[in-house]
Amino acid sequence: MEATGLLYLFNAPQGRGGTPMTREERNALIERYAAGYSEVTASLDGFPADGLTKHPIPGKWSAAEIVHHLADSENISAIRIRKLLVEERPVIQGYDQDAFAVRLRYNSRSLGPALDAFRTARATTLQILRDLSDEEWARTGWHTDAGLYSAERWLQIYAEHAHNHASQIRRLRQALAAG
Q1: What pLDDT digit, counting tens, does each position of 127-171 carry?
Q2: What is the 3-state secondary structure (H, E, C) of 79-122?
Q3: Is residue 160 part of a domain?
Q4: What is the count of structural domains for the chain?
Q5: pLDDT (average), residues 59-74
Q6: Of 20, 126, 147, nearest in space to 81 by CA
Q7: Coil, strand, or helix at residue 33?
């Protein structure tokens, strides 16, 4: 359901013209990554409680499903960047995010612990990101769904991930209000 555009993100060019990012480009993405949690919580501010599990846009997740996805995705992404930094040419396992949503009952669980998990995974990963060397940013592994996968690619994806879902939550709120 929500994977639209992910393969583009995995395969988008790094930096400018496929070259490694500059320190300034990485720092801008790190700051965007740092702002992701606040962007999501702001998108939830005032969201009608009775609408959190509704699907006003056919084929899209509910706001509750998005929050639980972010919690799981952030924990998975936190392990991915750690593997890239610690292991030699690690295999980065893909996963079925829609199966997670259904089998882990995203729409029937409380949002509080999911938001805490999301915030904590980001905060601890941010500590690591801010201290990486150019050599560490160049480390690569192999993603089972997308192929060659670098620490810089990871940053490009996850700097935008929460912001994209915050926008989706806002669209859900608009659809609920209209419908």
Answers
A1: 999 999 999 999 999 999 999 999 999 999 999 999 999 999 999
A2: HHHHHHHHCCCCEECCCCHHHHHHHCCHHHCCHHHHHHHHHHHH
A3: yes
A4: 1
A5: 98
A6: 126
A7: helix
